[in-house]
Amino acid sequence: MTTPGRNWAETHTYEAAALHRPAGVDELRRLVAAAPRIRALGTRHAFHDLADSPGVLVSLDAIPADVVVDPDARTATVGAGMRYGDLAPVLHDAGWALGAMASLPHISVAGAVATGTHGSGDRIPTLSDAVVALELVGPDGDLVTLREGDPDFAGAVVSLGALGIVTRVTLRVEPAYDVHQFVRNAVPWETVLGDFDAISSAADSVSLFTRWGTDVVDQVWMKSRRPTEPSVPWGAAATADQHPILGIDPVHATVQGGVGGPWFERLPHFRMGFTPSVGAEIQAEYLLPRDRAAEAFAALRTIGARIDPLLQVTEIRTMPGDDLWLSPSYGRDTVAIHFTLVREPDAVRRLLPEVEGALAPYAARPHWGKWFTLGRGALGELYPRLPDFVRLAGRLDPEGCFRNAFLEGTVFG
After folding, report:
1. What DSSP line would sit under 202-234, residue for residue?
2. 103 and 225 part of one domain
3. Of 176, 196, 227, which closes a domain?
4. Nearby residues of 263 by Cβ (< 8 Å), 6 or more positions away
């Protein structure tokens, strides 16, 4: 038992009284049964108090991951606290792969799933969409298993930790594959606004890195299962590896230049073993209907002069819709607009309402694990299944064992 400390980006100091690290699921079950208030703490990549607790926190990093691949079902069952960057080589060595990875392989499976975190690609859904079963510890210490097709399943995957402590996750897998990464520089904003679909569909996974007050999008990263560079008429091909943020040493970034490599070494933007992104940062992200992308970009460009002084980089990427109740991609094909901002909390707090105001006409949903200022009323309009989730949580956790201040302000209200 230790004190929880701070999150990865040092934007939040945990207020929980203690952090427990059980060595097994039975020990975890006893901890949950005995604690009036308890929540799970993953790899600390939430930028605010989402993972905090008014009671105690529990980390699953000491519980063996015990990866089990079922080749017939094409699934892998893993310990919920395992990081994607640790899981991926195990799967690859067994001849299997995930269909998507997040930008950061450093995040835990359960944390990414619970917040609706995503990779990139017109046809590549969120990481949560790969889940086919969950095992979790309920408020009385009982083990509960939910499977795809169960009535509560679609509400329980993106759960924000409000339904229990997830212990194991079963994911869809596919045969291992290679990916090649290509980068184009200085793509005119006029081109992006004129035919964003052509850019987002140029490869299996596409990310745009940009600022808002310039005439060009700085970089377009294209990740493809095909070894040949996509034939595109825009931008200039990069001549060396680059970091998503201009001016930072690309040693932290995954290999580019079309050099093929295993899926897990190309789909993320950053390598395991290095500090991802810049570290000293605040992140915000808003997800909106893909068919409104160009309008949203244009709206943000009108306030670019106020965004850019606090901005390190914006990443734009896409994903298809899903049926998970609290997923930011619920019910619609989605474009995500992600802001990596300087770590100046007061200035960022003043900026975000202006960003949210510019995006309000496009029903932009915030990423649950990143900074936003929208409250329960606004989120209730953006997430049509939020009332169903509240009822589900009331049934599975009637005493609010897994609730905290963040959930009370945004979900339960």
Report:
1. SSSEEEEEE-SSSSEEEEEEEEESSSSPP--SS
2. no
3. 176
4. 88, 92, 97, 98, 101, 176, 177, 178, 179
In a domain, 295, yes or no: yes
What is the CATH classification number for the domain harbouring 322? Answer: 3.30.70.2520
- Residue 303 sits in the same domain as residue 362: yes
Average pLDDT in the chain = 96
Q: What's the order of all strands across the beta sheet hosting 75-79?
A: 68-70, 75-79, 165-172, 131-137, 143-147
192 and 275 fall within a common domain: yes
The answer on 182 and 158 residing in a single domain is no
The number of residues in the chain equals 413
Question: CA-CA distance, 292 to 297, in Å (whole number)?
Answer: 9
For residue 95, count CB atoms less than 10 angstroms from its CB and return exposed for 0-12, middle for 13-18, buried for 19 or more. exposed
Question: In 10 A of CB 255, how many CB atoms?
Answer: 16
Q: Is the pLDDT of residue 280 over 90?
A: no
In the chain, pLDDT over 70 holds for what percent of residues? 98
Query: Residue 278 corresponds to which amino acid?
Result: V
| CB of 370 closer than 8 Å to CB of 323 | no
What's the pLDDT tens digit per position in 100-156? 998 889 899 999 999 999 999 999 999 999 999 999 999 999 999 999 999 999 999
Residues 290 and 192 in one domain: yes
pLDDT > 90: percent of the chain: 94
- Reported as half-sphere exposure (CB side, CA atoms, 13 A), residue 333 has a value of 12
Domain that holds residue 217: 178-367
Structurally, how many domains does the chain consist of?
Answer: 2
CATH number at residue 90: 3.30.465.10
- Do 326 and 254 lie in one domain? The reply is yes
pLDDT for 274 beyond 80: no
**Separation CA 411–CA 387 (nearest Å):** 9
CB-based contact 176:99 (threshold 8 Å): no
pLDDT at 275: 64
CB count, 10 Å around CB of 61?
A: 14
